[in-house]
Amino acid sequence: MLMIIRPYEEYDEKSWLRCRVLAMLDTAYYDNVLKEKERYGNPAIELVATEGEEIVGLIDIELDTRPGEVCSDSERRGGLIRHLAVHPDKRRQGIGRLLLLEALGRARTSGMQYLEAWTRDDQWVRNWYANVGFRMVDSYLQVYLESGDQLKGMIESKVPQLHPVSVFAHYTGSDKAYVVSKFSRVHETSRFDLDLMEL
């Protein structure tokens, strides 16, 4: 069946959500489920790859209107990749690369100087970003603290009878090995940049 890359439309939402959920199930984002598509406060590039009525890939990039507004770099205008997913039955067919290439042209036309992507510690995803020209520039840890021993002495409630059951936290310190050894679910989340001025 012919695949088409086109802008996202409101009527795509259900198929968009289904594609994203299925794409995340075997990744470190397996529990990052959305019930509705994210809407952006800034201009955005929102593209889908379709086969017939089914969305088989998607990319959303929110754009800076001034440096540092959405992206990390306060000197250059960038586009932050909010979502990039390919249906698991359609992987390794170049859909992600085609979506990215279409988005790159639109980002350049919009005056963006670089793209920024954040991803967790799935090595195959990191390899994909590196293979399409991104380079890793930063990382921090995302930490899930579960009830019991992991929360004891770490998180306390000041509200009587309110007991934390689980906590999601960011660790930006230098002793990553200690944090990894202390908690059962820790993800290294890395920033990858693609300089659009060098392409």
Automatic annotation (TrEMBL):
Residues 3-156 form the N-acetyltransferase domain. InterPro entries: Acyl_CoA_acyltransferase (IPR016181), GNAT_dom (IPR000182), N-term/lysine_N-AcTrnsfr (IPR051556). This is GNAT family N-acetyltransferase. Keywords: Acyltransferase, Transferase. Pfam families: Acetyltransf_7. SUPFAM superfamilies: Acyl-CoA N-acyltransferases (Nat).
